[in-house]
Amino acid sequence: HEIAQRDPPSWLVEELLPETDLAMIFGPPSSGKSLAALDLAFAVSHGFTWFNRKTKAGPVVWIAAEAAGAMRNRTRAYAQARGVKLENANFEIIEQTLSLMSQDDVSALTDVLVADPPVLVIVDTLAAASGGANENSGEDMNVVLTNCRLLHKATGALILLIHHSGKDAARGARGWSGLHAAVRAEVTVTYNADGDSPIRVLTVTKQNEGIAGTKLPFKLNVVPLEWDNDVSSCVIEHLDEAVLDSKDSGQLGGNQRIVFKIAYGLAGGGGAAVLQDVYDEALIGMVKPAEGKRDLRKQHIKQALESLVERGYLSISDDQIKIGSTYDEDVPLSEV
């Protein structure tokens, strides 16, 4: 009875990250884990949805213990790609070297954080912020995790640790095996480093407050910075979840189906449709969000078009759309 009467969990990101003490995102080098976390940081600091899920808006602090020099270009790339102003983001980056093994450093950090308590603190990375702690030592890592919990207790913030996967990624995060048990939520980043697919996947591999197993596909887009075209960085692009199983199932995802049927109808028998006309019709065909909700329909149309081109259902050239060779004319549109 006591369990049944508990209040439902509060979410920082709906059904993904609870308002709790510790969570972790980990993956192999160059998987995009820090870029995904940065995308999350901006979503929370602005109150944007993240992978179509509500966020709790509030201040975000990023502890740049690793690759601090890259943060300038990464944040500028995000602002440029998303059309937001960095000065409007409730987002602070701490570049000073600190150690979560040091009580003095943790006390000083706590004093900074409580002045304007964040809802999210991101540690990039756990190893770099641990001051030489032995990752394989439960004794050392318990000190680090205890100090992270003290930060949570002082601020109420979720402490999100960015970490590396081990040599065998299937066995989880690198180092001490107790790390998985210590966090309340865990997200794994995977991608095929040897393949040609641009798709990377965030998978919820642990969720104490909900259901694990959620998969969120994304890809990395290169952004040449406007102030210097010789300099670029990357941002993540959220993809339709249907791309994960659509190649195996042969079925299109919901947004893909809407866009394909419109393109097919406008293209006629072997003709071509105007790209803008497809956009306009698809915008009407998708459900308009409720008042006050962020309208992501254009983003979903763009994602659907890219997926349809990748799968060979459509081809796009000079703003003209033609039906691709993947579509079997003998299959009714209702079964695509």
TrEMBL record:
<protein>
    <recommendedName>
        <fullName>AAA+ ATPase domain-containing protein</fullName>
    </recommendedName>
</protein>
<dbReference type="Pfam" id="PF13481">
    <property type="entry name" value="AAA_25"/>
</dbReference>
<dbReference type="InterPro" id="IPR027417">
    <property type="entry name" value="P-loop_NTPase"/>
</dbReference>
